[in-house]
Design goal:
Shape: elongated
Oligomer: single chain
Radius of gyration: 36 Å
Helix content: over 70%
Strand content: under 5%
Structural class: mainly alpha
Order of helices and strands: HHHHHHHHHHHHHHHHHHHHHHHHHHHH
Distance between the termini: 45 Å
């Protein structure tokens, strides 16, 4: 529009233009007026007595158009990296732009923010973007720019709120915005997790969780020979056999203070229960003692390496953790546990071929270790499924079913088979397998949770899913997984307050900093959704996009 006005102006000022414009008046008048105009503007003084035609001056530009002129000049300066001059032009545009032209004013403030961003003055970026958003609350460019500046100012809550609004407005379809959101959310969650973990009081999980943990090992650290009736460690062994775990750390500490023949297994047992209670530092100290002590047996050292490796996984150190599992394997290649637990690590890391190698080695060493055999069946299925070998996947599932016939009382086996069936879209078979797992182990809260997730995702029956999650909590009120899934479903229902309450409950019982960071990320995401809804009236369209 501005270029058109400039062109017309030049046209009017040009002599040729005058002839043409005047020519539009009429055929008879055209010749006379054009002639008079020409004679009047010539250097000849012969016709100076003739009157000059009256021409109206160009109408003055409106303030809105003048503001656009300033903005366009500012854009040229901006492209030339002269940000101070660009700022001056954008400021002039704001000075003259009418207040009622909200979208224009939003643009000019946003342009000023871009200049301050280039100059590294993030406080001013925030100010200008805030003014821009005042005029246009759904201005994606201003929201995104303010989010990044808030991030640079370490104001992560504000940054997360802004970038969440952007992602919702874009329906999570723009990878760059989603990456910024993920980056800010993770940084914010890790900071909260670090602060929370320092104040966390270690607490043992449920007895069922402890039982399940020790079942995953072939080597039992509490099986010792001894006749010393006064030995605190033997008391710990007796309590362990009776599934009474509350005094084990105390008994092990008493044994260590005696510096008796049981001090190494006492360190290993105490370190294990520190690990289970989430006291990472104390666990690491005990495990290091066993690993470094020349009197430790190969079985004790391998067991300590495995547990230290799993602890490192919880500390975002998966590569270093793998070296611990490798060391456990090197100590004694006849031990089953190192291969089994390293195989699980590979499975988590999606290194299916290496996981299969380890599980097959376990089967060679101990064909009756049902947990490793079942993991091997599941890994074979995963290998075929991920490579889209559908025939191989069906064959693997058939073998998996035969495995369950061999180990008919293994609840974990039915739970894994149920997950595989769900992935294949065989919902009925999956639900039946979860029911079988629950009947075999009714105190295992995880099975209720997995079934609840399936009911929600596949059958879209959220009420039934919530009942299953609540059942899981009634079975084990320290199952953070159940609270996490309950919160996730409430987010999908847009019940943000309920979701935040559930995530908070999970946070209070999480054992490791890594788990806390994950849960804080869920809670803070829900809090941001709530804030964006209240502040801008923006709500996620769950019919058109996938949830977290």
């Amino acid at each position: 529009m501005v270029k058109t006005i400039e062109a017309v102006k030049e046209f009017f000022n040009d002599e040729k233009g005058k002839y043409i414009i005047y020519g539009a008046v009429g055929i008879a008048a055209t010749g006379i007026i054009a002639y008079l105009a020409y004679k009047y503007n010539s250097k000849s003084t012969d016709n100076e007595h003739l009157p000059r035609p009256e021409i109206d001056d160009e109408a003055p530009k409106s303030p809105a158009i003048v503001a656009q002129d300033h903005k366009n000049r500012g854009n040229k300066y901006f492209k030339g990296q002269n940000y101070e001059k660009a700022l001056e032009c954008y400021s002039k545009a704001l000075d003259i732009c009418p207040e009622e032209n909200g979208n224009d004013r939003a643009t000019f403030h946003q342009n000023r923010a871009a200049c301050f961003e280039k100059m590294g003055v993030h406080e001013r970026v925030v100010e200008e973007c805030t003014m821009s958003i005042k005029y246009n609350q759904r201005y994606i460019k201003a929201l995104k720019r303010r989010a990044v500046s808030y991030e640079n100012l370490s104001e992560l809550v504000n940054a997360l709120e802004d970038i969440t609004a952007v992602c919702i407005l874009e329906e999570f379809k723009q990878p760059q915005s989603y990456e910024i959101c993920d980056r800010i959310l993770k940084a914010h969650a890790r900071k909260l997790a670090s602060e929370k973990y320092k104040l966390r009081v270690p607490k043992l999980p449920s007895n069922h969780f402890i039982n399940s943990y020790f079942v995953s090992f072939r080597f039992n650290i509490f099986e010792v020979e001894g006749q010393d009736g006064d030995s605190p460690f033997l008391k710990a062994c007796n309590d362990f056999a009776n599934k009474s775990y509350g005094c084990i750390i105390k008994y092990c500490t008493d044994e260590i203070n005696r510096n008796s023949e049981y001090h190494i297994p006492a360190h290993l047992a105490r370190g294990t229960f520190y690990l289970l209670s989430g006291d990472s530092k104390s666990a690491m100290d005990d495990l290091n003692y066993v690993i470094e002590n020349p009197l430790s047996t190969n079985a004790h050292k391998a067991n300590a390496y495995i547990k230290r490796g799993s602890l490192k996984v919880q500390q975002w150190n998966s590569e270093d953790s793998k070296s611990d599992f490798d060391e456990a394997v090197k100590i004694d290649s006849s031990l089953v546990d190192p291969f089994h637990h390293r195989g699980q690590l590979f499975l988590i890391m999606d290194n299916i071929p290496r996981a299969l190698e380890d599980f097959e080695k376990c089967n060679q060493l101990d064909s009756e270790f049902e947990h490793s055999f079942i993991q091997m069946c599941y890994a074979k299925y995963r290998q075929c499924s991920t490579s889209q070998d559908f025939v191989g996947a069906e064959k693997a599932l058939t073998n998996f079913k035969h495995c369950l016939e061999r180990f008919p009382n293994c609840s974990d086996g039915y739970a894994l088979y149920a997950q595989a069936m769900a992935e294949q879209g065989k919902v009925t078979e999956s639900l039946e397998s979860f029911d079988k797992a629950i009947s075999l182990d009714p105190l295992n809260a995880s099975n209720y949770v997995h079934k609840g997730v399936l009911v929600d995702n596949v059958k879209n029956d959220r009420d039934a899913a919530i009942k299953l999650l609540q059942k899981a909590i009634s079975v084990d009120d320290r199952c953070d997984f159940a609270y996490e899934m309950l919160g996730t479903i409430e987010v999908q229902r847009l019940n943000y307050d309920e979701a935040i309450r559930s995530f908070n409950a999970a946070i209070e019982i999480a054992k490791f900093e890594m788990e806390l960071a994950h849960l804080f990320s869920l809670r803070e995401a829900a809090a941001s959704y709530k804030s964006v809804k209240e502040k801008y009236g923006i709500t996620m369209n769950l019919e058109r996009m996938k949830m977290i």
